[in-house]
Structure formats: structure tokens, C-alpha cells
Amino acid sequence: MGSIRRSKTKRRTRDLDQVHADLRSPKHLAKHTSAKAAEDLPGLGRYYCVECAKWFEGDAGLVHHRKGKNHKRRVRMLRAEPYSQQEAEAAVGLGVDNRQRTVRQPEAPAEDAADVPQEMEVEA
Questions:
Q1: Is there a contact between 51 and 74 (Cβ–Cβ < 8 Å)?
Q2: For residue 70, what pLDDT is reported?
Q3: How far apart (Å, rounded) are the C-alpha atoms in residues 15 and 62?
Q4: Distances in Å between the alpha carbon of 94 and those of 17, 54, 87, 99, 100?
Q5: Does residue 58 have a pLDDT over 80?
Q6: Is the dihedral of CA 59, 60, 66, 69 positive or negative?
Q7: How far is CA 110 from the centre of its chain?
Q8: Residue 33 contacts residue 54 (beta carbons within 8 Å)
């Protein structure tokens, strides 16, 4: 038997669109942070990195994390505006298309005097 690949949900952080909502509204962030008991969190829930959605044991760990590559990469990704549902549907082709589409009827060839070759008269 080969190795079985499992997703690691223990270290899974919140998605970028959820973090964007946390940054925009403090109410959304408070709802997330109050969902877990402070006794169960590292550092009794006092040291939290909003951008990375991670808890830390102490202030030193949080400061060290903020100087690190992973935190800076996450902040750089958060600067970009997340895709909306409307943009996702438009990318697939499900959006509203306001272009007027008309079916063209094939035109009958016009017989023009210039297009018809004239027969040359041959004198004998």
C-alpha cells in the first residue's frame, strides 16, 4: 500500500477572503475571535496576528512572526482585492452579455453590369 495523503486541518488558516472581511469590519473579527474560549488558545488569546489568522504564546513570538517571510508574503497577497462572485461568473462566461446579436441573412449576389463579362464582337 502506498502512502495516503491527508489534508492537515490542524494548521489550516483562514482564507484570504475571510481575512479581508476581518480587516474591513471589526465586528467580523470579534465574531471570529470570540468563537473560541480564551483558555483553549495559546497565550490565553491575547496575541493574535489578524493577517495570518494565527495565535501566539507571547508577545516575542508575535513580533518574531511579523518580521518573518510568511507574514510578509501573506500581507502582500492581502493587498490585492479579492475576486467577487460576479467576477468569477464572468470569467466562466455566466455573466450578463449586453451585446446585441443579430443573425445576418446571406445576401443574394447582385448582378452588376460591370461584373458580367461582355462578349466581344468578332468581325469576319
A1: yes
A2: 92
A3: 20
A4: 22, 36, 10, 14, 17
A5: yes
A6: negative
A7: 53
A8: no
Cβ atoms 42, 56 nearer than 8 A = yes
C-alpha cell at 91: 470569467
From 52-61, 83-92, 106-115, the region with the lowest mean pLDDT: 106-115
Query: What was the pLDDT predicted at 1?
Result: 47
Nearest to 51, CA basis, from 35, 34, 30, 29: 29
> What is the Cα–Cα distance from 59 to 80, expressed in whole angstroms?
28
Contact by Cβ (8 Å): 84, 17: no
Write the DSSP assignment of the chain as a string of letters. -PPPP----TT----HHHHHHHHH-HHHHHHHHTTS-GGGSGGGG-EEETTTTEEESSHHHHHHHHTSHHHHHHHHHHHSPPPPHHHHHHHHT-S-------PPPPPPPP--TTTSPPPPP---
Q: Inform me whether the pLDDT recorded for 65 exceeds 80.
A: yes
